[in-house]
Amino acid sequence: MQIIHTARPNLFEGMPDPLQALFLLRAIHIPIICRGILYNEAINNNESVGWLSALSAYSVAFERTLFERLFRAKLQAKYFPKGAQQFENWAAVTLGNNMLNWFDHANEGYGYWLSRFNQWHEYAMRSLDHYLGSQSIDHREMTGKMKEAAHLGILKNLEELPENRVADLLDEVNSTKETRKMYRKNAKKRRTTPANLEFASWLIELWPLVLEYGWSYRDVQRVAAEKYESDSSIQKLIEFIKELKKHCKKIGLKISRVGSFRIGRPRGDEKAVYPAMFQVALFIDGLVDHEWFWGKADGGFKDFKNLPRQS
Fold first, then answer.
1. C-alpha dihedral over 205, 206, 207, 208, to 10 degrees?
2. What is the pTM of this model?
3. Which DSSP category does 46 fall into?
């Protein structure tokens, strides 16, 4: 907030709609500042940015909200472009050249898009929590200072902790025997790569679509089959709805009441269609590598040509 006030003290002056101001602050300007900080750390300071993952979640949610706005407008207009460039040109004319103005004339209003951003952000944070929890049981079970110590230890173990930048936090961790032991335990533990971590992260981060657009488990299965077409291990995991449902529940995911009433056509049925907004899910990569921590986890217009045409 201090950065925004210093850089643009009159940013919201004369804005009659307080909801618009709140949306622009939380869903646009704060994420843009987060992206700037991440870029500066990664490029200019040549630092790892895993320790700034809370900022990364804002940036990722910002991207997802933009993608949803884009494809929702396309769905409402019943527009079917033939390629990436045509789609980009259409977006520039329909929504505006500046993505920051894409929401000015949205049918849904600022309150709706603020709630969408908040949900994208919530599930980005849940994905992050799942990722860290998969590295250590301490992160899953501890609370308070002990969990903070485990968190720092995990980041140290993953080589994502610039100790000179977090000296005060490390001093606090080392101030008691219990937290110091917790930190060292997690900093030195053997690294693990849990099975299906990438897939679980993707599921968590696409779930705002599942809830908002009433997807069924068959819808999730169909989109997952498209997303991971060349991954035989995930194809095996999603082969049966019962197993997919069990996997979702294991990581705390449940479809909406609307989705539970939708049966959908079985996998492989030629008449089966993709669920609403499935394109956004195909762009999502989840927390699988450094790009998520950099705050950039999605594709761009150039990848649109690779999407299925059916909507």
1. 100
2. 0.87
3. -
Position 272, amino acid: A
Structural domain containing residue 169: 137-188
233 and 198 in contact (C-beta within 8 Å)? no
Give me 128's structure tokens.
């992050």
Give the residue from 70, 96, 125 where a domain finishes: 125
Q: What is the DSSP string of 1-31?
A: -HHHHHH-TTTTTT---HHHHHHIIIIIIHH
**Calpha distance 2→127 (Å, rounded):** 28
Span 246-284, pLDDT tens digits? 999 999 999 999 988 876 655 555 556 899 999 999 988
| Same domain membership, residue 181 and residue 145 | yes
- Is 165 a domain residue? yes
Question: d(Cα 214, Cα 255) in Å, to the nearest integer?
Answer: 7
CB 37 within 8 A of CB 4: no
